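Example A, followed by Example B.
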Amino acid sequence: MRCCKSLLCVCLFLLAVVPAYCQRGTLGIDIGQTSDTFAGLPTQSSAVFLVDGEFAVIKSNLKTQRPAVVAGGEARFPEDALNHAKEFAVYGGVHFQFMNNNLTIGVDGQVRKIYLPTAFVDNQFFDRDNMGLFELPVVIRYKFGSGRRAFIEAKGAPEFTPHFRPSGAKLQLPNPNFDHGYFVQGSAGYVFGRWYVKGTYENRYFKFEDNQNNPSNLYNWRTNRISGGIGFSF
């Protein structure tokens, strides 16, 4: 219930504020399942609710070869917040149009905040620090079919060193040393007038060095998400 209320608040805020500043945008809601594995602990699965939006601050112009300047964001709310991360992200990017606007290739600068769940090991609770990320995902989107209504999209990037902030718990894990990470995401959908349907799969992985700052590899994290939803453009 708390996830639904938060999701509704985000949607109402975007509907009220963003159209006043942008020329065109999309707003969507997805529901799906996320599976998360931390270290060697059992994989946990939960329903997840997402809201995302992207808005063209400056439209592209094929005649002058001007790219589109976009802004957007997303919020993720797992039903089981005890074992899964809650996330918020905002981004801005430059998207170039090719093939009469059928092909889009762009790069986004994205800031993401992740509230990691508490670890339970050997009958003890260990609070992980909250994670802040700066990401530079490459975005490729292609429209095809009758009226260019079908679309596919690929997005991905290597992860940079996260920034950690204490969650405020008394028993806090130390900050781990980053090794490597990445995320990849693929979507496919179809547009019905101003409405669209979309399905998405995402895989993300973080690995940290095996030392005293990452006891039992509790920060190592792999997540798989599959979701589907609807949205509209304006």
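Example B, a separate protein, is given below in the same form.
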Amino acid sequence: MDMPSFCAWATIWVTTWAVWAHKVRLVTTTATGSHPVATPRISAGALFLDDQGRILLLRPTYKSYWDIPGGYVEPGESPRAACAREIYEELGIRVRVGRLLSVDWAPHPDEGDKVLFIFDAGWLTAEQLAQITFQDGEIAEYAFVEPERLEQFTIPRLIRRLRATIRALTDRQPAYLEDGAPQPQAPALVPGLRTCATDQSRDVGDTSG
């Protein structure tokens, strides 16, 4: 066998062995009891309210409906950090993101499994509102909208999520949701735990980063 033929044969043999070894590892993993795990997309959003209880909504140029500030979490990033980053990218202001208000397990038919976090972002001062700028062309405008008028601005699953999140804010108890619907939660094991576990007060939006 000449050298070129030998090299070609060796390449085929090594490739075949590597594929076989990979399959063996897969079969071994399955045989030892491992199961597929969910790898959902994760997003984080911010709930801003004004002094009239209206919700800050944005009109993205790439969506057919209004949404709250927020977006997908990047690799190695926490949901809270992603929320703060998205606020800056979409509104051009830096705020301190407050406590978690809701977590929603909401698979999407086109996007697969999704988990959505909403954090309390407090109120924006008049100075901060004046500083809002849409830097990347993804946001066309913003508006403060009464909860009872959400149907005029956005989609049903987001309406359910936002209304449940506002209830969680009022109750001072984070809400677990599935497709925007609140799910039963276990009672506190220690009397008064619900009150003790909450934050002292909502933060007024600031620029402390």
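On Example B: The CA atoms of residues 172 and 198 lie 6 Å apart.
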